[in-house]
Amino acid sequence: MLLKTFGWSFAITAAGLALAGVLWGWQGLAIVAILSVLEISLSFDNAVINAGILRKMNAFWQKIFLTVGILIAVFGMRLVFPVVIVAITAKLGPIEAVDLAINDKDRYEELVTAAHPAIAAFGGMFLLMIFLDFIFEDRDIKWLQWLEKPLARLGKLETLSTVVALVVLLVTATTLATAVPVHDGGGTVDKATTVLLAGIGGLVTYLIVGGVSGFFEDRLEQEEEEAEEEAGEEAEKAGKAPARSGNGTVVGLAGKAAFFLFLYLEVIDASFSFDGVIGAFAITNDIFIMALGLGIGAMYIRSLTVFLVRKGTLDDYVYLEHGAHYAIGALAVILLISIKHEINEVITGTIGVVLIGLSFWSSVVRNRREAGSGDGPGAKAEVSSGV
Predict the structure, then answer these.
(1) pTM of the full predicted structure?
(2) I need a surface site. Which of 74, 301, 353, 362 has the fewest CB within 10 A?
(3) pLDDT digit string, tens, across residues 202-231
């Protein structure tokens, strides 16, 4: 199963490194390898979040995620997106922007870096909303009960996540964004309006895409429950055991629901890729080397997502989603802080890996405790992890 799931990633890695060696020599090959590792370390929590959403889709949409989705992730976000940002911010035409990226790499890097406040505000607010909606929701299984219980009670207030996010955005725009250092070290510039507008854009995008996908998801689950009830009643009349349409917890979403969940996944991936694209400029400003290295890393994140879904890892290790969402919250805060202060990508990646590692360890402890007491997985509604 490992080879089947990661086969394409292994093949593309081998082909990508070989191509890098031929085009750019050993130095280019090394840079591509480093960028791949950087992308994987920064986006591991992305794979866990994606798996939680992808397991709700049917097989067809899972394949779409792996085919069309990877094209969007690799070529769209890692190659086209930076060029589009340069074209918009510098008010250049598409051809001029591409020419700049190829022939004037230093100027291209300067323009992308100058757009970082807007990019960070958009991605930071989108990720912050994911985190806030998660921690304000009352869940049967809680990881850090001392924190999640009171937050779940606060979450009964409608639109609390939006209010908190807007307050965070307002504070960010009026403090961090008023004196953003210029790329060449020549003083500071006021980016408050830019950050405010970009942040609102990220918030609105989350509310639209997440809201529409959630609406169709809830509607489809409701229809399935009604169909199961009708089938149960008919089976009861016929004196037969009622048939079940699935495992009772996961719905194979299709149609409009799956389409909007797919869009939601792509926006999440875009938000996660922002810090990787910007951070990659610390290693290289060649867009093709960057796209190849980050693209290889993105392939592994896609494969890891599918692996987690097929192995049922999120069901076996129930705190993994909690750890991933806390990592998302940390990344959102880091993106907003990075508007003014430069933060090393090693710190960003380490925080995410540590939080997911702690949640995995807590899940193992929980499973051992339940196995020792004779209870099956999920037998208890709420179990403290001891973290």
Answers:
(1) 0.78
(2) 353
(3) 899 888 877 777 776 666 666 666 666 766
